[in-house]
Design goal:
14 helices, about 70% helix, mainly alpha, elongated, about 0% strand
Length: about 200
């Protein structure tokens, strides 16, 4: 009965009702709701779309990936940045791979720097160490095209959000950085007591 009524309310005009019904359906875990949930992945409200994508991940690890990627890489930068912020706010582990790919993407003219900075913050909010494994380009002394100091600093400032073991190699490299601010961040993280740094 709950599934039936919740599925019916997915057509409600109020975005927050639809989002709440999606959350309820995910907790129940009924695969019969998938067709209705899939329709919500095209909803006009981005918050509903992302919630629907989270539901779909509960039943199929592959199909929703492209939907999530499209939301995070939307051609409208404002919508893309909103999707990135929501992914971080809701700690969507499924978003780690596309977010890390977005941060690591080459951007010769720096046109998407603001988007990448938001993605760095979203990854920190999620705190999955797998993200750091994908951002080795930021650790390299030389990269082409060069990575802006602002982006390197943002990444080093975000390290405190990750498990101590995962950020260890980054701290070691940061202490040898030619950028004084990065050296200072790395030294502070290295000096932090383990119980506070974890």
């Amino acid at each position: 009965m709950v599934v039936r009524d919740a599925t019916h309310l997915l057509s409600d005009p109020r975005w927050y009702v639809v989002r709440n019904m999606l959350l309820l359906l995910r907790r129940i875990g009924d695969p019969g709701s998938v067709p209705a949930v899939r329709r919500c992945a095209e909803h006009g409200d981005l918050r509903v779309r992302l919630e629907a994508i989270r539901n779909l991940f509960a039943f199929d690890q592959e199909v929703p990936r492209e939907l999530l990627r499209k939301a995070l890489e939307h051609r409208d930068p404002l919508l893309a940045e909103e999707a990135i912020e929501l992914a971080g706010e809701h700690r969507m582990v499924e978003a780690v791979e596309p977010l890390a790919a977005l941060v690591a993407a080459r951007d010769f003219w720096g046109r998407r720097r603001a988007t990448r900075l938001k993605a760095i913050r979203a990854l920190a909010a999620i705190g999955d160490p797998a993200a750091l494994d994908r951002l080795g380009r930021f650790a390299a002394r030389f990269a082409f095209p060069p990575i802006a100091v602002e982006e390197r600093l943002a990444l080093y400032r975000s390290l405190e959000s990750y498990p101590t073991a995962a950020r260890g190699p980054w701290i070691d490299r940061g202490r040898r950085s030619r950028i004084p601010e990065i050296r200072a961040i790395a030294e502070a993280l290295a000096a932090a007591p383990a119980e506070e740094a974890s």
